[in-house]
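Q: what does this look like with adenosine-5'-diphosphate bound?
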Amino acid sequence: MNKSEQIVKTEEFVKANMKGYDSGHDWWHIVRVRNLARFINEMEALADPFAVEITTLLHDTADSKFAGDSDKAYLFMSEFMDENGLSTIRDQVMNVIKNISFSSKSARVLDDPLFYVVQDADRLDAIGAIGVARAFNYGGFRNNKIYDPEIISQIGSVHGTSSTISHFYEKLLLLKYRMNTLTGKKLAAERHEFLEVFLKEFYKEWEFNNISL
Ligand code: ADP
Ligand code: NI
């Protein structure tokens, strides 16, 4: 099997394994992350482009929020890679995927260019206009409140899933400070600015007093 056939096989595997995920984590999230990772890697020539393809494609197939037992999902992914001639990059790819998650307590920063590229790409898709759309989509999927004015959030505060607005302070507003690559940092700065514009407008509308016109 050549590399483009292996990519097609991997795309099929991913599509078959992401059914039941929310629409912010669907196939199009994978496509966006792949495009962002390709761009970052072209700008910085850090990682093997084929490994970038395979890792971005597989990066959410064992997400514990959706896949149930992620150990089983990792085993399944590892078997898939062995059966499709991807054994030589298997350990590197799996190691990256296991450590890119923002929310996982056990995740580590790896000293691997592949990790830098894929993590930046995944994080960029969580901010900017798409990030806002995904956050409210995920909040709706979990039936969380849009906003709870009784909870005052600050950057870094932890209120669990109290509201989607509080998720901005727990995660989204931190991401621009956590980018690995220069290209990732530049893209994140622009997307971060949009988050701030969005929040400003959100609070302005929330606090609207019914002034007679
Ligand atoms: P990671 O894969 O880095 O752990 P997540 O899977 O937690 O990231 O997040 C993926 C997407 O879901 C992001 O767009 C994120 O903002 C959104 N998301 C995760 N948790 C919440 C939440 N509690 N409320 C709103 N959006 C969320
Ligand atoms: Ni992802």
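The chain has a mean pLDDT of 90. DSSP finds ten helices and no strands in the chain.
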